[in-house]
Design goal:
Helices cover 38% and strands 2% of the residues. It has twelve helices and two strands. α2 packs across α7, α9 crosses α12 and α11 crosses α12. It is globular, with a radius of gyration of 21 Å. The protein starts with a helix and ends in a 30-residue tail after the last helix.
């Protein structure tokens, strides 16, 4: 299995390298597979990603808000947390998140490992504590054995949990979109309308922020450069991390990979459709009013960024024991 993955990665990497020579001027690059992964850690992380026992209620898992059947998100404006609390911000997709400069809209987590521990202990999300989560895992002999097999340690800790989840999330890349096929030399992969949309996307200045492998995710930008963005949410953006007033309403530029699947859009989930999002971004970021025809062409291009979705056997989670806390979804 490992040799097959390595051969696939080397072959695709070589194709990407050749395409890079042919299309060196394009601001967007094809999605590549992860350079290296630990398969044992990935399998453990997959279980933890789907395991709701890491939450206080025993009902919420990572997949609840970052559903891998729904583009790695939950398709609602703001997520539902412990005791049906409404979250303050839209859940970004987990797909291709390893390609981002940092995690969360405000970038408060430097990488996937740092991000993975946040929701578990957030009272508005999974509402547990790291200590209690470890206690749950230690009460399940099959987990104890698997952690020891993967990490070669006798005791489970939160670093191992977050490392494993992050390693699994590294595999959630989506290569082979029609746009990537076009980048790699298949000239008939896009229709004339989609190509016209890509030209508009470039010529209008969208690529200043939405570029690279993830078509975004590699910078923080102010929401409302030309025209103020009016939102009814408490998020202040990057300023919450840096403490600098200049960073107010600066957010991580979202990836546009699989964007047709990750509605609604923006940090507050206010744009219900891609057409609305394109219209708003043109107006407040670029000072441009797209015609209906231009909007439709850009939307057509954006839909070509949908790649192969992660496909794997759902993990069978190890059974709880008598010592494992039982779910309390209603707080009783």
């Amino acid at each position: 299995m490992g040799k097959i993955l390595t051969a696939f990665a080397l072959g695709l990497t070589a194709s990407v390298a050749m395409a890079g020579i042919a299309r060196a001027q394009e601001p967007i690059e094809p999605v590549r597979p992860p350079a290296s992964i630990n398969l044992g850690m990935v399998e453990l992380g997959k279980k933890l990603y789907f395991d709701p026992r890491l939450s206080k209620s025993g009902f919420i898992s990572c997949n609840s808000c970052h559903n891998l059947s729904m583009g790695g998100t939950d398709n609602i404006p703001t997520s539902i947390g412990d005791k049906w609390q409404q979250g303050p911000i839209n859940a970004p997709t987990v797909l291709n998140s390893s390609l981002s400069v940092a995690q969360f809209w405000d970038g408060r987590a430097a990488d996937l490992k740092a991000q993975a521990g946040g929701p578990i202990a957030n009272p508005g999300e999974m509402a547990f504590s790291h200590t209690l989560a470890i206690g749950v895992l230690e009460s399940i002999p099959a987990y104890v054995r698997e952690f020891k097999q993967v990490f070669k340690k006798d005791k489970i800790d939160i670093d191992q949990v977050t490392l494993a989840i992050a390693e699994f999330e590294k595999t959630l890349v989506t290569p082979n979109s029609r746009f990537d096929q076009w980048l790699l030399g298949r000239k008939d992969a896009l229709t004339p309308t989609e190509l016209a949309g890509y030209t508009l996307f470039k010529d209008s200045g969208c690529v200043a922020c939405h570029n690279g492998e993830a078509v975004g995710g590699n910078s923080f930008q102010k929401m409302g450069v030309v025209e103020a963005y009016k939102a009814n949410d408490p998020a202040t953006g990057r300023a919450a991390v840096t403490g600098k007033d200049a960073d107010r309403f600066n957010y991580k530029v979202p990836t546009l990979r699989n964007v047709e699947l990750t509605y609604p859009y923006f940090h507050d989930g206010a744009a219900r459709t891609l057409g609305e999002a394109v219209d708003t971004m043109g107006r407040i970021q670029l000072g441009k009013k797209f015609t209906a025809d231009e909007n439709a062409k850009i939307v057509a291009f954006l839909k070509t960024l949908t790649g192969d979705q992660p496909s794997f056997m759902l993990p069978i989670l190890p059974a709880s024991t008598d010592a494992t806390p039982r779910p309390t979804p209603f707080g009783k």
